[in-house]
Design a protein that fits this description.
Elements: H1 2-8, H2 12-25, H3 30-44, H4 50-54, H5 64-78, H6 84-96, E1 102-104, E2 122-127, H7 134-141, E3 147-148, H8 161-168, H9 175-182, H10 184-187, E4 195-196, E5 202-203, H11 206-209, H12 227-238, E6 243-245, H13 246-260, E7 269-275, H14 279-288, E8 293-298, H15 301-314, H16 320-331, H17 335-339, E9 341-346, H18 347-352, H19 354-365, E10 377-378, E11 381-382, H20 392-395, H21 403-406, H22 415-424, H23 426-431, H24 439-450, H25 458-467, H26 471-476, H27 478-497
Parallel strand pairs: 2-7, 2-8, 3-7, 8-9
Antiparallel strand pairs: 1-6, 4-5, 10-11
Helix pairs in contact: 1-2, 2-3, 3-5, 3-27, 5-6, 6-14, 12-13, 15-16, 16-27, 22-24, 24-27
C-alpha cells in the first residue's frame, strides 16, 4: 500500500523500494510482483540503461519461484522490444522447471490396461483488443457441434500457478471438488463466489455481469450445470490417467462439462475464451499448449479504446486509463502471437459481412460451417449480449447490429488526442484496413507527435478540471509517467522500423 501511494506521488524509486521491502518479507507475493512492474516501466524513461533498471529489481532469494517471478517481470518490461523473443524462450523454460506441475494418480490405471479417452488436441484461444466483441464471437462459436467451450471468461486465469495449486492442494481425489468450488459460477450463473482475473483482482457476480443469468427466449433462465454429474464424469475420466498436468485436466474438465450438459457429440477442438490473461497464465498456457491457435478480436483502435475507457473516464478513475491505453498499444505485437499460429478478426467484418467472415474463420479453425454460428448462445441457450454495452438495449441482442461500429469517436479523445493515437496505431490500422497506407504522411506525423508525447492529453486536462487536481502533481504521478514511458517506447520502435515488426496478421476473407 505504501508502494501504491508513493507511485501515485511520482516517487518511483521510493515506491520500488517499498515493493522490494514487501517482497523481502513475502517473496512469493504476487500483488507486489505485479505492481512493481508499473513503477519500473515508468522508471525506464528516466534511466540510461537496462543494467541500471535491473539494479532496482527485487533481491535474489535463490528460489525457483523468485527466478520465475523475476523472469515474468523482465518479460513484461521487454514487450515490444528486440529482447522479447529471447525473453519468451527463457520464461517458458523456467516455468517448465517449476515443481508440482504434474500430479500422479495414486491408483495406477495402467494395471487395468485401459486406453486414455480421446480428447481434442486442437485448442483455439480467444483474446481481446480493448472492447472488440469477444463475447459476441464466443456466443456465435457456442453450440457448434465440433467445438467444446465453456461459457464466459471464468477460466481466464485457469493456467496461473496459484489456480493449479488450489486445485491440487488436497491431492488427486479432491481435484474435482476443488475445481467446482473455485468455479462455482460455472455451475450456477447467479453465484456470488468471486472469480480471479488479471492482477489477482476478484470479480463478484460475474455470471450476472456477463449476461449468463438471464438467458433463453424470455431472458428468464439461468445457466446451471449439475455438479454431481460433472464431478462423477470428471473423476471417471481422471481414472484413465496415471498423471495429469493443468492442460490435461483442462481438457478432461471440458469433456466432463459436455457430458453434464448432455452434449455427447464428438468434439474436434476446444475454444478457450482466455480473454485478458495475466502474463504467467498466458505463458504457462503457451508452454502446455505449444500448438495452440490464437484469435484476437479487433476493432478500429480509437473507437475500441474509447469504448474501453468509457467507465474509468466517466468516474475520473485515471490510474486505470494509462494501463488500458498501454495494453492496447503493446498487445498488437505481443510476441506470443508471433510465435504461435494467430490471426485477428475485425469486428467490423463480422458484423457487416458475417456470411463471408464466418466461413473464412471456419476454414482457418478447421471446422465445418454451421447455422449455429449465426446465433448468439451460451450453453446452447439464447444469449442476449453484454449488459455493460451502451448498445445493449438498442441492438445488443442482434449479433450483427452495427451501432457499436458506427459510433462516432470523440466522446473522450479530442482531435489532438486522436492524432497522436492514430499515428501510434498507424501500422496496425493499415494492416487491418482502417486507413489507407501513406508512408510519407506517416513519417511526417510521427515526427510531429514526438514533442506532444511529453505534454498532457486533452482528456487528462478534463480529468484534472473535474477533480480539481494539481496539474504539476498530476504530471509527476506514476500513472502519468507510466503512460509516457509506453508512448515513447512505441514511438522509438516506429521511428526505427516504421512499423511494429511482430504484428498479428489479419484473417483473409473473400
Amino acid at each position: 500500500n505504501i508502494g501504491l501511494t508513493l507511485i501515485e506521488q511520482g516517487k518511483l524509486e521510493e515506491s520500488i523500494e517499498a515493493y522490494n521491502t514487501a517482497l523481502n518479507i513475502k517473496p512469493d507475493y504476487d500483488m507486489a510482483w505485479n505492481n512493481i512492474v508499473f513503477a519500473l516501466q515508468a522508471l525506464k524513461a528516466q534511466v540510461s540503461s537496462r543494467k541500471e533498471l535491473v539494479f532496482h529489481y527485487p533481491k535474489d532469494t535463490g528460489s525457483q519461484s523468485y527466478k520465475i517471478a523475476k523472469s515474468i517481470l523482465t518479460f513484461r518490461l521487454d514487450q515490444g522490444t528486440e529482447n522479447a523473443v529471447n525473453s519468451l524462450t527463457e520464461k517458458l523454460e523456467l516455468i517448465a522447471n517449476n515443481d508440482n506441475l504434474i500430479i500422479k494418480n495414486p491408483i495406477c490405471s495402467k494395471t487395468f490396461n485401459v486406453l486414455e479417452p480421446l480428447l481434442p488436441n486442437k485448442v483455439i484461444a480467444l483474446t481481446h483488443f480493448g472492447r472488440s466483441g469477444t463475447g459476441l464471437l464466443h456466443s456465435l462459436i457456442d453450440g457448434h457441434p465440433e467445438v467444446s467451450t465453456l461459457p464466459s471468461i471464468y477460466l481466464s486465469e485457469y493456467f496461473d500457478h496459484s489456480t493449479w495449486e488450489k486445485i491440487t492442494a488436497g491431492g488427486w481425489h479432491e481435484m474435482a471438488d476443488r475445481f467446482v468450488l473455485i468455479y462455482e459460477v460455472l455451475f450456477d450463473a447467479t453465484s456470488t463466489v468471486p472469480i480471479e482475473t488479471k492482477s489477482k483482482k476478484l470479480i463478484y457476480n460475474l455470471g450476472k455481469k456477463e449476461g449468463t443469468a438471464n438467458v433463453g427466449e424470455n431472458q428468464n433462465e439461468v445457466l446451471r450445470v449439475d455438479k454431481k454429474l460433472f464431478r462423477a464424469e470428471l473423476n471417471r475420466l481422471m481414472a484413465f490417467y496415471d498423471e495429469v498436468d493443468a492442460f490435461v485436466f483442462f481438457k478432461i474438465a471440458h469433456a466432463a462439462f459436455n457430458k453434464a450438459i448432455n452434449d455427447l457429440r464428438k468434439k474436434s477442438l476446444i475454444f478457450y475464451h482466455i480473454h485478458n490473461p495475466d502474463t504467467y497464465s498466458q505463458l504457462n498456457f503457451v508452454r502446455l499448449a505449444p500448438n495452440a491457435n490464437w484469435v484476437m478480436m479487433v476493432r478500429d483502435p480509437i473507437q475500441s479504446c474509447e469504448s474501453w475507457l468509457r467507465k474509468p473516464f466517466k468516474e475520473n478513475d485515471y490510474p486505470k486509463i494509462p494501463n488500458k491505453i498501454f495494453g492496447m498499444l503493446f498487445e498488437i505485437d505481443n510476441i506470443v502471437y508471433h510465435k504461435q499460429n494467430s490471426i485477428g478478426v475485425r469486428l467490423e467484418d463480422l458484423k457487416e459481412y458475417p456470411r463471408k467472415t464466418i466461413p473464412a474463420l471456419c476454414n482457418w479453425m478447421g471446422i465445418e460451417e454451421s447455422e449455429s454460428l449465426y446465433e448468439m448462445t451460451a450453453q446452447g441457450k439464447k444469449w442476449w449480449g453484454d449488459p455493460s454495452s451502451p448498445d445493449f438495449a438498442k441492438d445488443g441482442m442482434d449479433p450483427f447490429g452495427q451501432k457499436s461500429i458506427k459510433r462516432n469517436v470523440g466522446s473522450i479523445f479530442s482531435e489532438s488526442d486522436q492524432f497522436i493515437l492514430r499515428t501510434l496505431f498507424y501500422p496496425f490500422s493499415v494492416r487491418f484496413g482502417y486507413v489507407e497506407e501513406n508512408v510519407e504522411r506517416f513519417k511526417v506525423d510521427l515526427q510531429a507527435i514526438r514533442s506532444m508525447l511529453e505534454q498532457m492529453f486533452d482528456f487528462e486536462k478534463i480529468i484534472i478540471e473535474r477533480t480539481q487536481a494539481d496539474p504539476e502533481q498530476f504530471m509527476k504521478s506514476g500513472s502519468y509517467l507510466y503512460l509516457r514511458s509506453g508512448l515513447i517506447e512505441r514511438w522509438n520502435t516506429l521511428n526505427e522500423h516504421h512499423t511494429y515488426p511482430n504484428m498479428i496478421k489479419r484473417l483473409t476473407i473473400n
